[in-house]
Model the fold of this input.
Amino acid sequence: MKRNSENGPILPSTTNGFTSKALQAKFAKLGIINELGLILHLPLRYEDETHICPISYVSEGKTVQVEGIIIQSDVMYRPRRQLVCQVEDGSGMLFVRFLNFYSSQIKAYSVGVRVRLLGEIRPGFFGIEMVHPKCHIVREGAPLPDTLTPVYPTTAGLSQVVIRKLIRKALIDQARVNNLSETLPNKTLTDYRLNSFRDSVVFLHHPPSNASTDLLQERTHPAWCRIKFDELLAQQLSMRLHYQQRRSHRAPALPARNELTKALLKSLSFNLTSAQRKTFSEISQDLSEIYPMQRLLQGDVGSGKTVVAALAALQAIENGYQVAIMAPTEILAEQHYQKLSNWFAPLFSSLGVTIAWLSGSQKRKQRQAALSNISKGNAILAIGTHALFQEHVEFNKLGLAVIDEQHRFGVHQRLALRMKSTKSGVVSHQLMMSATPIPRTLSMSYYADLDVSVIDKLPPGRIQVVTKLFANTRRDEVIVRIREACRVGKQAYWVCPLIEESEVLQLKTALETHEVLSLTFPGLKVGLLHGRLSSQEKLSVMQLFKQGDIQLLVATIVVEVGVDVPNASLMVIEHAERMGLSQLHQLRGRIGRGTEASVCILLYQKPLSEIARKRLRIIFENTDGFEIARQDLLLRGPGEFFGVRQSGTPMLRFADPERDETLLNDARGVAEEMLRDYPELAQRHLQRWLGEKNKYLRA
Done:
């Protein structure tokens, strides 16, 4: 059997051939490959089999354990085939029904047999009953367990009995003492009043009969607190190590020269907000250092992140270095290209440099020209999509990589762009931007290896978008609103979630809606934008919409990010109940970018699920993206909030950053202390919780 040098065999072997490759494969589905994995496979809940309740004392709706003699056992066929037994214990009698059973059970559960039953008491046709209880045949006076019975997460073909047996063996295997050894300094245990790791693990697998089931279920018992603290600590240690390792690399020092940056600020028609000035100051200081900046710039929709990124780009450029700006869609990348070209063209006129545009849809000749200018250094700024990090793209002297909507790019993609600078022996600075706000506790947890700047105020003059909820039965009212808005010169979006008809979802489609609205508004120019148009077609449609040649734009969620048309003041979102909070907030942010009052109408289809009702209430009541993100986190949890469990991000199994914020704060402090004073313990702690995962550095 293959062995793990740290944690022993993949699964504990037994002399009776109990462990097999098939069994190992089933455990692997649960992420368990060794004994340490078994030890950290903690129960979902517990069953109390430590005492017997007399039948006369049971209450409906309660889960209890009773013991008695089967006094009658019959197979009945109405209303369906079922095995029905009557069990008596001297104080009372109840019925037991098995809806799915084997012929062997008919024989086993015969009259006169003593059984121990664990299940929920329900009212039945003949009296109180249990349906499919946990059932054991026992002898009279058989001892009761002295600990609660753990119920573990499992997979098909893997029984609780097998899991319990292997975990019990792993806990008592003296040859693997390191699996339960302490990884925290005594000072930490004392200062934070933490239980030992061994005691906590053993307690959670085998809690005594008097343990508080409420504290166990809510995961607030001191034993659970120790486990959650350890998990958060491992995450913080990992993130801080990654942070320190990046700072060991060399980056070009790009100090503020206040030449191009000052010229841009002077040319703008607006003044920076205090939040924009603060975040640029933080970025500017990072760029002047000799280690690579790795900063996340957060800001709500419309908060003005682009101008801050532009100033950062100019600081790099005035030091003689190239800048790359990467966006997830061609529409957004093209918008950055147009805006920055307008801002930068006057500043670059005397420098003899250009701005390059690079996308997958370019013609070969245009692409070759852009690649040549980038490699020679003639293009001091390159703007584009995923095409920027392809192998054949070579930069002459890359100093700064800016990644917009960074969560839409994978770890490898972000890393590939940053590594474009390593030929010169240095690593470029990296600025990531996101208009999907990250709640503070998640930022402390999942982005602990980054420096984070937040633009927490909108520019003055921005008018709050009014959100209205309309049931689908009120479509006629929506049509009237569209007609009135366009009649007075305004523009509108009509957003649909699908392109083609789906018999499963039965949603209105962009194609069908465009056809219907074109007939409904014969006097208006109705445009259509969706993901299956070519890149050139998308850009052409958006240009016509910006110019006002299209009054009503029917679109899929391709307009979710970055599209800026100040004259658009009305948006209708079809089937809003099907969309997530972040998506709804991003879409709503496409309007209200001018000086006119704007309205976002969320059309929903009844009946609403409970989760859809909560989402619509949250988006209706809130306009602050950070509060919406916080509520979204509470609804979905961190795994779903991030969408994809990205490689290199230690996700949490037991702790919840929002509920366990106090533990998270403590873990942050302990991580710094352990890395400084107890590096060996820190490495052992990381190995226990992250194993090989810790070797991959986040990008």
Q: What stands out?
A: The chain has a mean pLDDT of 86. DSSP finds 24 helices and 24 strands in the chain.
